[in-house]
Amino acid sequence: MERDFNFVCNKDMCAGCMLCVDICPVQAISVMDGIDSYNTVINHDLCLNCGRCHKLCPQNSLVNFKEPVEWYQGWSLDPSVRANSASGGMAAEISSKFIQNGGEVCTCVFDNGNFVFNFFDKVEDISSAAGSKYVKSNPHGIYNVLQDKLANGKKVLMIGLPCQIAAAKKYINGSNEQNFYTIDLVCHGTPSPELLRLYLKGKNMALEDINNIQFREKNIVNEHMSVEKNIVNEKIKDLYMRAYDYGMSYTHNCYFCSYARLERISDITLGDSWGSELSQSEKEKGISLVLCQTTKGRELLNISNAELLPVDVNRAINSNLNLNKPSVMPPSGYKFFSEIKRGKSFQVAMLKSDPIWVIKHRIKNLFPCLIRIKKKCGGGVSTIQFGIKYL
Fold first, then answer.
1. Residue 374 confidence (pLDDT) above 60
2. Do residues 306 and 374 share a domain?
3. Using one digit for the tens of pLDDT, what is the confidence trace for 259-272?
4. 282 and 139 share a domain?
5. 34 in any annotated domain
6. Vertex 6 angle, CA 45 and 136, to 5°
7. CA-to-CA distance for 295 and 341, rounded, in angstroms?
8. In angstroms, rounded to a whole number, what is the distance separating the alpha carbons of residues 338 and 329?
9. Is 98 inside any structural domain?
10. What percent of the chain has pLDDT over 90?
C-alpha cells in the first residue's frame, strides 16, 4: 500500500501509542480521534522532513517477536492482591515485588477523567493501577521520562498493550535495554475514550466527574461497569461492555493488529486463564494466564510471591483467540458506528445495531426479581425462565 505522507502511518491504522507525537522535535504531529479510528496528522508547515516518525512508528515496522518458552496459570499468594485484581493478580504481584527490589513501574491509571500512564516507586500507590481498562489509554509524555530513568541506571517495568510496549522499545532503541522490563497484555482491541464519554453522556455522567471506574468484576464478562461518582457506587447493567465483548466498538486498527499473535514482544505476557481446568472455587478467586518469553521474564517470576501451575497450552490458546489473530468486527459493528456518526446516542446506536440483545437487556433490568428467581430456582420456574429467555 502506497503511504500517504499526510499521516505517520496508513490512514485509520494509528494505534494511539503517541510515540510520533513525543519524538517530533517541532510538535508537527497531532492525533485526530475519529471515534472509530485514530489518525496521526502531519503539519507540513512545521515538519522538518526528518522521517523519524515514519521510521519509528510501530505500525510501520514491527519489533522483534519471541515465542513463549514457559506457560503457566496462577495467582498472587497475597489474598488481598488477588481479590482486588481482575483475574489472578499477577500484574500487581510482580509490580509490587519489582518496586520492593528498587525498580519503578510504568503503567496505565485513570486520573481526572483520563486514562494515562504514570510511574510508580511506592508499593502502596500501585493499587491505583489495578483492574482491566477497556478503553484506549494515552502514553503521551512517558517515553522521554522512561529513557532518562533507564539512562540513570533505574530499572523500569512497563505494563501495557503490545502496541504500547512496541512503541517504548522503538523509542529507547536498545539504549540501556538491560534495565527495561516489559509485560504486555493479551488484548482484544480498544475503543476510543470518546466512545466511553458518549456512553456515559447517556447516563448523565461525565468522565471528569468520576473518581473511580471498573470495567468488570472478577470473572464476570459482559455484565456491568462500576463507577464511583461523588463517593457513591452505582452499578450499571450496561451496553458498553456488550459492545466491547462482542467486538463492535474497537478502533479500526485493532481489527488488523500485527501484535495479536502467539509470538510476543515482551518479557512476560499476561491474560485471563479462560478455559482453565482448575476448580470452580479457584476460578471465582481469579486465575491469570502467564507466558514467559525471556530470561528477564523468568527473573520477574522468580521474585514474585505467586502460585504458578502448568496450563494446557492448546486450551489456553483456543480460549484466548487474540493469541492467534486480531478480533473480527461483526456486521453489527459497522451498523453501530454508522449510527454513531449520524449523531445517534450510544444507547440508540446499540438498539439499532443489536436490537435483540438490547431488548433482552431492558427486560432484565425491568424485572430484576425474576432474574433472581431464575438463578435461585433453576428449572423449577419454567414459565419465568421462558419469559426471560425468549422475550
1. no
2. no
3. 999 999 999 999 99
4. yes
5. no
6. 110
7. 47
8. 13
9. yes
10. 74
